[in-house]
């Protein structure tokens, strides 16, 4: 049986034609003369209403049309008598694909908490909220590829299993085929990874950047967009153990070019979502407004979701150095009143409370911070002439904090090696990375955008676990 996605039926099927739709029952309502069934197939936030006259459907069939059941319905598309929809399907035939025992089906047509829905992540895509999020997520992913393709970047697939720790933070998941109970040991009693699958210790990647740089030194402009893993036991609303990262890397780009690209890139993909996900974003905007009503007045945000997206697209990001930001923070009200949880002074890594103060209270705009102290940034960042700072840039967003982290890279071999030795990374272990500085080195820059943080911002959700289909976090890998 050929059928049309509900999205197409609602948008373009002519009234009077016969259509077949297939989807999951959201609600069934019976009145004196008719039975109304609302069906959704995931192609749009909107349900389609199908109507049968009372007594028209066999009792057995009617009983199986319950919330969650999957059905195929054929009938004429007619103008709707009721309010709320322009058209509806006059049921001629119903086929039940799969019933859903109403006693057991966990998704009832009422508001469920996000916490509860996380426990049924296998079913939550069938809710309005999660189907909207997943469609927006798809649109953003598409826009990412489109942006880079339009701007002359090549999509480079960097390895997921690696033997290097790009961030030097050591929060990695080990990949091994060794016996977990009795691994082979060396003479010193340590695990003998030379007997492991790859003949060495390997992990899931925390970033594709190092290999991305190799690509940029050959193809000019590349980007990666792939799964990334961090075993950080942080349990925050902004961290996942498995997330998707977008990492462009460009030859002949310096810090300023890097900032320009980052700003243009995020604005362009957000604009794409605003233009192509109008219905879903309107729904999420509304959802957020309802949620805000339950909050205290002072915790409510001044802008709605759509306003906030428009605001980011149409305003220039504020750019300032880390040193200037520290000045602002040290002299801020919360610092003077001791309201920051973490101390703020030159040299410390900014905490999310500091980032959010700058963005939400002080500038009320997205902010790009540059030239951080070298001690708190990765070894590969280009050192400034003052010997104190590096050409780093972090993009900070309202409600999120850091959404992008990037830098111009150190292209001078001697400086890079010296820095590695200072922080205790053996240059020999990264001989292949250093070869790009030995042979045809060039100024280059890049950044990493956590895809879920972008989806979080665009959907207005509050927890990163709600913007990826099956979240991976400490003690959570069920689905
Ligand atoms: P944070 O300080 O927020 O932990 P980070 O400094 O560790 O971020 P980077 O190493 O610069 O982040 O990674 C680049 C980007 O990847 C970040 O700007 C963020 O968008 C994203 N990101 C980092 N860690 C996570 C995570 N655990 N889950 C989801 N996204 C992440
Ligand atoms: Mn981190």
Automatic annotation (TrEMBL):
Residues 281-309 form a coiled coil. Its main location: cytoplasm. Residues 134-469 form the Aminoacyl-transfer RNA synthetases class-II family profile domain. GO terms for biological process: asparaginyl-tRNA aminoacylation. CDD domains: AsxRS_core, EcAsnRS_like_N. PROSITE patterns: AA_TRNA_LIGASE_II (PS50862). Pfam families: tRNA-synt_2, tRNA_anti-codon. One of its GO terms (molecular function) is nucleic acid binding. It comes from the Bacteria. Keywords: Aminoacyl-tRNA synthetase, ATP-binding, Coiled coil, Cytoplasm, Ligase, Nucleotide-binding, Protein biosynthesis. Its EC number is 6.1.1.22. It is found in: Cytoplasm. GO terms for cellular component: cytoplasm. It catalyses: tRNA(Asn) + L-asparagine + ATP = L-asparaginyl-tRNA(Asn) + AMP + diphosphate + H(+). Homodimer. Belongs to the class-II aminoacyl-tRNA synthetase family. HAMAP family: Asn_tRNA_synth (MF_00534). This is Asparagine--tRNA ligase. It comes from Spirosoma terrae. The gene is asnS.
């Amino acid at each position: 049986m050929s059928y049309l996605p509900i999205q197409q039926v609602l948008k373009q099927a002519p009234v009077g034609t016969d259509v077949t739709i297939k989807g999951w029952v959201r609600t069934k309502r019976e009145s004196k003369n008719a039975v109304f069934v609302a069906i959704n197939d995931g192609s749009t936030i909107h349900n389609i209403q199908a109507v049968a006259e009372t007594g028209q459907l066999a009792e057995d069939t009617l009983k199986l049309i319950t919330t969650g059941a999957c059905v195929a319905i054929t009938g004429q598309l007619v103008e709707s008598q009721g309010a709320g929809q322009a058209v509806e399907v006059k049921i001629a035939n119903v086929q039940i694909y799969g019933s859903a025992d109403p006693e057991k089906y966990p998704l009832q047509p009422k508001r469920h908490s996000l916490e509860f829905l996380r426990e049924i992540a296998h079913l939550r895509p069938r809710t309005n909220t999660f189907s909207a999020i997943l469609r927006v997520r798809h649109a953003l992913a598409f826009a990412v590829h489109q942006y880079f393709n339009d701007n002359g970047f090549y999509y480079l697939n960097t390895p997921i299993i690696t033997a290097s720790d790009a961030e030097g933070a050591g929060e990695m998941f080990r990949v091994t085929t060794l016996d977990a109970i009795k691994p082979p040991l060396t003479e010193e009693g340590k695990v003998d990874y030379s007997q492991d699958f790859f003949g060495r210790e390997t992990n899931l990647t925390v970033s594709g950047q190092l290999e991305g740089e190799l690509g940029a030194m050959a193809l000019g402009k590349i980007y990666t967009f792939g799964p990334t893993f961090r075993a950080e036991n942080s349990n925050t609303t902004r961290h996942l153990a498995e997330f998707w990262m977008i990492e462009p890397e460009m030859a002949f780009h310096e810090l300023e070019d890097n900032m320009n690209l980052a700003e243009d890139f995020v604005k362009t993909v957000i604009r794409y979502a605003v233009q192509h996900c109008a219905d879903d974003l309107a729904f999420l905007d509304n959802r957020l407004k309802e949620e805000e009503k339950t909050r205290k007045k002072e915790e409510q945000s001044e802008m709605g979701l759509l306003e906030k997206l428009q605001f980011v697209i149409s305003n220039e990001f504020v750019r300032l150095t880390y040193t200037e930001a520290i000045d602002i923070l040290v002299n801020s009200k919360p610092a003077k009143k001791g309201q920051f949880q973490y101390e703020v002074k030159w040299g410390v890594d900014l905490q999310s409370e500091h980032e959010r103060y700058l963005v939400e209270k002080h500038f009320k705009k997205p902010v790009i911070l540059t030239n951080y102290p070298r001690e708190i940034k990765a070894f590969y960042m280009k050192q400034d002439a003052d010997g104190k700072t590096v050409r780093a840039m972090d993009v900070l967003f309202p409600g999120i904090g850091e959404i992008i982290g990037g830098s111009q890279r150190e292209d001078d071999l001697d400086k890079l090696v010296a820095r590695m030795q200072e922080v205790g990374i053996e240059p020999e272990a990264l001989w292949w990375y250093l070869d790009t500085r030995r042979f045809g080195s060039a100024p280059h820059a890049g950044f990493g955008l956590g895809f879920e943080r972008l989806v979080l911002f665009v959907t207005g959700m509050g927890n990163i676990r709600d913007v990826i289909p099956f979240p991976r976090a400490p003690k959570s890998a069920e689905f």
